[in-house]
Amino acid sequence: MSRPGVVSRAGGIRYTFPAVHLNRWTWLPSAIAFTALVGAIVFSASHASARERGQDAAATAPASDDESVRLFNRMCSECHDSKRIVARRRTSSEWETTLKDMITEGAEGTEKEFVAVFNYLVRTYGKVFINTAPATEIRAVLGVTPAQADAIVAYRKENGPFADAEAVKKVPGLDLKKIDELAEALAF
């Protein structure tokens, strides 16, 4: 059974959302794309919490960086230069909006592939507002452990907002070299 906007493939559902203008139904492709992206992100978040608890590790194993790069190049570089896409760092919500826009414009991929690309973009080209972000977002962008992300939030609550990367490096237990390497991912 075929539905407009969804093409079945052997590997799962491939989402395609061409811009269709049918009088009062013009919102439908965007609504479907948004629903698919939100579902992918919720799916990713729920499996991330399961990984934190040590559950279902084999089923929720993240895509390798090589696979994520391959997916990113296949899904994003078909329409435009991938260097332009990652020219500036973006927050998780900005990457979410970017992927939603790509889906609306016709990007094809399974839900799992979109989740892998989203996680890759946040991890590799993410930006975090260190003074307001929750520990989960800090962990995703900076690649720190849950305990280190919690320590950043606790330090911030106790000592006030961070002024710069040097102030972040005062948090006990952080890998200072990693903070130096990711200084451009920090926003204040």
Describe this structure in words.
The chain has 188 residues and is mostly helical. It folds into 2 domains: 120 residues, no CATH class; 60 residues, Orthogonal Bundle (DNA polymerase, domain 1), CATH 1.10.150. The chain contains 9 helices and 4 strands, in the order E-E-H-H-H-H-H-E-H-H-H-H-E. A two-stranded antiparallel sheet has the order 1-2. The longest helix is centred in the first third of the chain and has 25 residues. About 14% of the residues have low confidence.
Provide a brief overview of the structure.
With 188 residues, this protein is mainly alpha-helical.
Draw up the topology in text.
Blueprint: E1 6-9, E2 12-15, H1 28-52, H2 65-76, H3 82-85, H4 92-104, H5 111-125, E3 128-129, H6 135-142, H7 146-159, H8 165-168, H9 176-181, E4 186-187
Parallel strand pairs: 3-4
Antiparallel strand pairs: 1-2
Helix pairs in contact: 1-4, 1-5, 2-5, 4-5, 6-7
Give me the number of helical elements. Answer: 9
Low-confidence stretches: 6-11, 17-23, 49-61
General shape: elongated
Our Rg estimate from Cα atoms comes to 18 Å
In round numbers, the mean pLDDT is 79
Class inferred from helices and paired strands? mainly alpha
Number of strands: 4
Largest sheet: 2 strands, antiparallel
Domain module tally: 2
DSSP helix fraction: 40-55%
Strand content of the residues, in percent?
Answer: 5-15%
- Element-level helix/strand string: EEHHHHHEHHHHE
What's the arrangement of strands in the largest beta sheet? 1-2
Q: Termini separation (Å)?
A: 50 Å
